[in-house]
Design a protein that fits this description.
The complex is a heterodimer of chains A (about 950) and B (about 200). By secondary structure, chain A is an alpha+beta fold. Chain A has 25 helices and 48 strands. Chain A folds into seven domains: about 110 residues, Roll (Ubiquitin-like (UB roll)), CATH 3.10.20; about 180 residues, 3-Layer(bba) Sandwich (FAD/NAD(P)-binding domain), CATH 3.50.50.60; about 110 residues, FAD/NAD(P)-binding domain (3-Layer(bba) Sandwich), CATH 3.50.50; about 70 residues, BFD-like [2Fe-2S]-binding domain (Arc Repressor Mutant, subunit A, Orthogonal Bundle), CATH 1.10.10; about 140 residues, Probable tRNA modification gtpase trme, domain 1 (Gyrase A, domain 2, 2-Layer Sandwich); about 90 residues, Alpha-Beta Plaits, CATH 3.30.70.1400; about 100 residues, Elongation Factor Tu (Ef-tu), domain 3, CATH 2.40.30.110. In chain B, the strands form two sheets. Chain B has a six-stranded mixed β-sheet. The longest helix of chain B has 12 residues. Classes of the chains: A alpha+beta (about 950), B alpha+beta (about 200). Chains A and B meet through β8, α16, β36 and β40 of A and β6 and α4 of B.
């Protein structure tokens, strides 16, 4: 046992020893230790260097309020910077490194106080380093980055798993101190579903600091564990409180072991939906600003008590306790009882009823005394009555009073109210179904907190419909009232008195911010970086506000605190993402033919959620070879393509035709049963929305197809109009995208191929002309056949109930074998539609009108439709708007670049339009493209420059009609 | 039109993989696909009473209220949207049921075959823990008891979720067939800590 762990008791398993490393040193601790307690037990005082000034820093707290003792934990891909060592549960083999020091912790070359320190006073980002601008990237930023900052994140991928879990309960209790335990037990015994969250690895909160309460703590936990509907979540920090009693938390499942067990997650993101919330989040002790209040050896009084009673450590050899309230008397008493010599308690108050009792235990109690400086092993005390003396001490415990942890209450919408007796803000009236209890509500005393929690637990259970819980468990005795606090924020002296240790913000910085006009609490926070970062200003947040209030000459109540937002404590992004990373980032949608594609060499491409064959790669093919082979196969003979991803909407009802006439710019009611028609729909604002085909299956029954990308949006659009705008129309809509697999068969021999495969339908041109729809059978499976073409060739689409897709696909492949049928993918399809001049997503991009796309002649002359009125707006009707054109390079060997700008002359700064789609034409033997070009129709035949700044390329292109191939559509109709 | 479903090939037939090497135990989650006929019924304007009467006559089932289903263990009617229900019936090789309903419900309801559009997955075992990892709903039997259903997101995709047996934690999940593989994979990921078994026979292997 180390010299510092000389005390008995506490929650430490002294029978087992754990080995760990800090900055390469091999050290020892015990189960139950935190990294901080193990370091203190090993006699280590300096654990890091500060953010800006590189001042040596020690361990200030024993929990999440810690501003200084941050480490880089673990190694390699599990490296975790900026971890508070006060929250790290010690495990065998733990490795930690101090941060922000160079070259070493003991000898830090960056600790230059003079010139450099003045350059980075508050607002330094906005002032010192502004000019000249060219210096910023090369000089200032690297300098600041090297000097200031925290730990380094790893660049390696995270090897661990995370998951997100949804939890529901009647009563959610945050915090397992006396108030939380009592609330949980009474609600649980009443029959409510209870979840009790504790961020620590031991339940009990303040009970862990009082050995006399240990029996009650254990009894309560045993009782809670016996109630089936009470769930206790340890190592679970609730970080955010949102609307509708939704709260978020992170459970550190495996952070207390070297690496997660097989199949276990590292951390679990939990969302809680609770009928009622009890916030038993406790209170945080606040600092007092004085010279040297950041030096190693300064510790919050409550933390010192924790180290003595929970961890069995004497955190120093000679101690001074500096306080303005009663709570620190327990610390002085505990330190004296632990055998520290000459414990001095300096109380700024002139009288204290606890003084006599403490003096009886050999504590030197000095009333009406302030600490005005802490140097090397010496505390300077100054009596208000005059007179100053120095006390030798290596430990200075500070208590400036207690702030209820109001983060979650404030986030829930409860306004904070000023409590003059406590000199702090407490949660006001709840805005949601919640209640703050115990220390979180400004109540002191174990027994008092337990009773407050019990009352809240009863109310919460009753609201959730569970009453009449029997209250047959004992509660701890009441502490009785304590003397009031004497607010003290700052002991004014020369030298740096810190209000925010993590960002090195001093009391003078706050005053400077006020002098420079940043007087609102939110402005002062941002200008000075006070109350930010991993500790969220727990120690000094109220201090900064008080110093600002004094500078403004206003009350602290009026100045207030900055807004509390999630997260109360840092949360790993990995935990928030849960499992939704990499391939699980978003849902993957597979067509019925997916497996066939994979077995036949398809290179799959994600398009939205879908995975679609990009092309089918034969062994020796590289580059564009496969795409060109597939497209040639279609143009010369016949190809087959899986187009199941098209959106398909089944539309029925006596008003279906009327409904379609109002949706599309062209008339659809005249379409005969057994025929289909191309349609274009606009958004309400007159911009083109989506295109597709509309097939009339029966008088009151249509099948509408949409683009793959817009399938859901179009259905939603239709539902919106059917339900809210035209409720008088009797129509029913239903997505049948998944019911039907769809197979395109295209090419001059597609008719002959299908004649071999389709039964029960005459496919001759006379009987089944262009834009016909019919029913037949393939391999005895009933199918729908559509004679429509995206490629411009003679083409058909076969719709088949999706589980039969493979049979039908293979039957058609066999039927086309004699014609050399070729499966083709997305890229060949794109190639052919660009040749044909058909628009797709690049042109239907949410910025183009029907006229821009050359489809204004489709608009019906009479009758209204969605978007008609606004499409006539002057800006949308302007004839000089960019219009769809075709382009080709003057030099036929040159490639075109998608996204290139079109300019009338070289070096022109004015873009006349841009290239939307490009491909290599197999019909023409060179690159072609589609583009949007100002005055596009009039520019036909002209030459413009295509400038791709991205590729640093400029080439001359000729403007043409977008229909590069077969403009008269002879092929599709023949 | 009619569909002859002489056989009903599974969406998972080609891709079924062995279950991952998670810890095995008696309470692992078990997932199986149940072949069924699925028909979407949407009442025409003001025709819900007529639809209810026709459904009662044919199936002796009442049209269930929102977020509920009605079942006689042969046929199941599930509320899935205002004035819209999904009928789950035994596999119907001749697709005769759909044709029969189209004719019987002409002018009363739109009848759309979704037999191939959706998959029914039966999930049993530690479903509560597993579904809590991919579904936002409170599935406690006190809240979501027997006879309750919901149209909700499970693993980010839209599903119809049915509490089939509240005492044994058996749920049916009805999902778009194009998302079925994704859902199966996600359920298996969610059961990582417990282990899972795919009933490969029932998945059509």
């Amino acid at each position: 046992m180390s010299a510092h762990r000389r005390l008995q008791g506490g929650h430490i398993d002294r029978c087992k020893r754990l080995t760990f490393h800090f900055d390469g040193r091999r050290l020892f601790g015990h189960p139950g230790d935190t990294l901080a307690s193990a370091l203190l037990a090993s006699g280590i005082r300096v654990v890091g260097r500060s953010f800006k000034y590189h001042r040596p820093r020690g361990i200030m707290t024993a929990g999440p309020d810690e501003p200084s003792a941050l480490v880089e934990l673990r190694v390699g891909s599990r490296t975790e910077p900026n971890t508070k060592m006060t929250e790290v549960e010690l495990y065998e083999g733990l490795q930690a490194r101090s941060q922000n020091r160079w070259p070493s912790l003991k000898f830090d070359l960056m600790a230059v106080s003079g010139l450099f320190g003045n350059m980075i006073s508050c607002g330094f980002y906005y002032k010192t380093f502004m000019w000249p601008a060219s210096f910023w990237e090369r000089f200032y930023e690297p300098l600041i980055r090297h000097a200031a900052g925290l730990g380094r994140a790893t660049c390696l991928p995270d090897p661990d798993h995370y998951e997100a879990v949804h939890a529901h309960c009647d009563v959610l209790i945050v915090g397992s101190g006396p108030a939380g335990l009592a609330a949980a037990r009474v609600a649980g015994e009443a029959g409510a579903r209870v979840i009790l969250c504790e961020r620590d690895f031991l339940p009990g909160g303040g009970l862990l600091l009082d050995p006399a309460q240990e029996i009650w703590r254990k009894e309560m936990i045993t009782a809670l564990e016996r109630i089936p509907d009470v769930q206790i979540l340890l190592r679970t920090n609730v970080f955010g409180y949102y609307d509708h009693n939704l709260l978020g938390g992170v459970e550190q499942v495996s952070d207390h072991v070297p690496e997660p067990r097989p199949h276990a997650v590292r951390q679990r993101y939990r969302t809680f939906r609770a009928r009622h919330v009890v916030l038993a989040t406790g209170a945080s002790e606040r600092l007092i600003a004085f010279r040297g209040n950041d030096r190693p050896g300064v510790m919050m009084a409550g933390a010192a008590l924790t180290y003595v009673h929970r961890f069995g450590i004497a955190p120093g050899k000679r101690a001074v306790v500096f306080t303005n309230n009663d709570s620190a008397y327990a610390t002085a008493f505990a330190l004296a009882a632990a055998g520290l010599d000459g414990v001095v308690l300096a109380d700024v108050r002139r009288e204290s009823r606890l003084a006599a009792k403490l003096r009886a235990h050999d504590v030197d109690v000095r009333l009406g005394v302030e600490v005005n400086g802490f140097g090397t092993d010496a505390v300077t005390l100054e009596a208000q009555s005059g007179g100053r003396n120095t006390v030798r001490a290596d430990l200075l415990c500070v208590s400036g009073g207690w702030n209820p942890n109001v983060d979650l209450a404030s986030q829930s919408g409860a306004k904070l109210t000023w409590d003059a007796a406590l000199a702090t803000f407490i949660p006001g009236a709840p805005a949601q179904a919640e209640r703050s209890v115990g220390a979180a509500h400004g109540i002191s005393g174990i027994g008092e907190a337990a009773r407050d929690g019990l009352a809240a637990g009863l109310v919460a259970a009753k609201i959730s419909g569970f009453g009449g819980g029997c209250l047959d468990f004992p509660l701890p005795a009441l502490d009785g009232s304590c003397a009031s606090i004497e607010p003290l924020w700052e002991v004014k002296t020369s030298g740096k008195a810190f209000v925010d240790l993590q960002h090195d913000v001093t009391a003078n910085d706050i005053r400077q911010a006020h002098r420079e006009g940043f007087s609102h609490i939110e402005h002062a926070k941002r200008y000075t970086t006070h109350s930010m970062a991993t500790d969220q200003g727990k120690l000094g947040g109220l201090l900064g506000a008080a110093i600002l209030a004094e500078a403004r000459g206003e009350t602290l109540e009026k100045v207030g605190l900055p807004t509390f937002r999630p997260y109360t404590k840092p949360a790993a992004i990995g935990a928030l993402a849960g499992g939704a990373t990499g391939k699980r980032f978003q849902p993957v949608r597979r067509t019925a033919l997916h497996a066939w594609h994979l077995h036949n060499g398809a290179v799959m491409k994600p398009t939205g959620p879908w995975l679609r064959p990009f092309y089918y790669s034969a062994a020796a093919e590289t580059g564009w070879a496969a795409v060109l082979r597939e497209a040639r196969g279609v143009r010369q003979s016949v190809g087959i393509c899986d187009v199941s991803t098209l959106g398909k909407i089944d539309l029925q009802g006596p008003d279906a035709a009327t409904f379609l006439d109002r949706l599309y710019i062209n008339s659809l009611s005249p379409v005969a049963v057994g025929k289909c028609r191309y349609g274009l729909m606009l958004r309400e604002d007159g911009i083109a929305f989506d295109d597709g085909t509309i097939s009339r299956l029966d008088r009151d029954h249509f099948l509408v197809t949409t683009t793959t990308a817009n399938a859901e949006a179009v259905l939603e659009h239709m539902e919106f109009y059917a339900q809210t705008v035209w409720p008088e129309l009797d129509v029913s809509l239903c997505s049948v995208t998944d019911q039907w697999a769809q197979i395109a068969v295209a090419g001059p021999r597609s008719g002959m191929t299908l004649a071999n495969a389709v039964e029960g339908l005459d496919l001759s041109n006379a009987a089944f002309g262009f834009m016909s729809v019919g029913e037949g059978r393939v391999a005895a499976i009933p199918v729908r056949v559509f004679r429509i073409s995206f490629s411009g060739e003679l083409a058909y689409e076969i719709a088949v109930p999706s589980r039969h897709a493979l049979t039908v696909w293979q039957t058609i492949l066999t039927a086309g074998q004699e014609f050399g049928i070729v499966p083709y993918g997305l890229e060949a399809m794109d190639l052919m539609r660009i040749e044909k001049g058909h628009v797709a997503g690049s042109e239907l991009n949410g910025q183009t009108t029907a006229a821009d796309l050359g489809m204004d002649r489709m608009m019906k002359s009479t009758g209204d439709f969605i978007g008609r009125v606004l499409s006539a707006r002057p800006a949308l009707a302007d004839p000089s708007r960019p219009r769809l054109v075709g382009i080709r390079p003057i030099e036929s060997g040159m490639p075109l670049r998608c996204g290139a700008h079109l300019m009338s002359k070289l070096g022109s700064g004015t873009s006349l339009g841009w290239i939307t789609s490009v491909t290599q034409s197999i019909v023409l033997g060179h690159w072609i493209g589609l583009a949007m070009l100002e005055n596009g129709v009039a520019m036909n035949g002209n030459t413009v420059y295509a400038v791709s700044h991205l590729h640093d390329e400029t080439i001359e292109v000729v403007v043409s009609s977008p229909n590069h191939v077969d403009p008269e559509n002879v092929r599709g109709r023949s | 039109m009619s569909v002859v479903a002489a056989d009903c090939p599974s969406r998972f037939g080609e891709l079924t993989r062995p279950s991952h090497s998670g810890p095995a135990g008696p309470d692992v989650i078990s997932i199986a696909q149940r072949p069924a006929t699925l028909i979407h019924l949407t009442a025409r304007r003001a025709q819900q009473p007529a639809l209810a009467a026709a459904v009662w006559e044919r199936f002796q089932l009442n049209l269930p209220q929102p977020n509920h289903f009605a079942s006689d263990n042969v046929n199941t009617l599930i509320w899935i949207q205002p004035e819209g229900w999904l009928l789950e019936a035994p596999v119907d090789t001749g697709n005769t049921l759909c044709l029969e309903l189209k004719s019987a419900l002409a002018g009363i309801a739109a009848v759309v075959d979704q037999t191939h559009g959706k998959c029914v997955l039966q999930v049993s075992g530690r479903t509560r823990e597993v579904l809590a990892r991919c579904c936002r709903l409170d599935l406690d039997p006190r809240i979501f008891g027997a006879g309750r259903s919901a149209v909700t997101l499970v693993a980010q995709v839209s599903c119809v979720l049915l509490q089939v047996d509240a005492t044994r934690w058996c749920f049916d999940l009805i999902v778009a067939s194009t998302y079925a593989q994704w859902l199966l994979d996600e359920l298996q990921e969610a059961s990582r800590a417990f282990g899972s078994v795919r009933d490969s026979a029932a998945l059509g292997k």
